[in-house]
Design brief:
This protein has one domain: Roll (CBS-domain). The strands form two sheets. A three-stranded mixed sheet has the order 1-2-3. A two-stranded antiparallel ribbon has the order 4-5. 46% of the residues lie in helices and 21% in strands. The chain starts with a helix and ends with a helix. By secondary structure, it is an alpha+beta fold. It has six helices and five strands.
């Protein structure tokens, strides 16, 4: 079973600083092809901005993307995980709190973020591998 630090080992961390406009953050997200991004202030986690935040806190209320600051519309109350947490524990935690993105924090330092999609993909890969091993064992017996 993998830990979150193992999962994040070969992945870049995508983030923006507080103070950027929503338009700037959306442009960054589109360029990175991500649906959510961490919002930091001098390296400290302040929030997360997702496509859902864009729709519910910016588009639906009719806010201007160019004048609205990310700090005004980001999600501030975040569930987090630690680097030694297992991927299964992270998935359970996300299901329990009802979130799709989980920042990974170590002593106040942001290491990255995992998504429900990341964890489901990993789980599918593990189950596929187990199934292949079982088929191989049965065929050789």
């Amino acid at each position: 079973m993998q830990t979150l630090i193992q999962l994040l080992a070969d992945r870049p961390m995508f983030s923006v600083e507080t103070g950027f406009s929503v338009a700037e953050v959306v442009e960054t997200m589109a360029a990175l092809n991500v649906g959510a991004i961490l919002v930091l202030e001098r390296g400290e986690l302040r929030g997360l901005f997702s496509e859902r935040d864009l729709m519910t806190r910016v588009v639906r209320p009719g806010r201007d993307l160019h004048t609205t600051k990310i700090d005004e519309v980001m999600t501030r109350e975040l569930a987090t995980a630690g680097p030694s947490d297992t991927t299964d524990a992270a998935m359970s935690h996300m299901e329990h709190v009802g979130c799709r993105h989980l920042p990974v924090i170590d002593g106040g330092r942001v290491l990255g973020m995992v998504s429900m999609r990341d964890l489901m993909r990993l789980q599918l890969e593990e189950k596929t591998s187990e199934l292949e091993h079982m088929r191989s064992y049965i065929q050789s017996a």
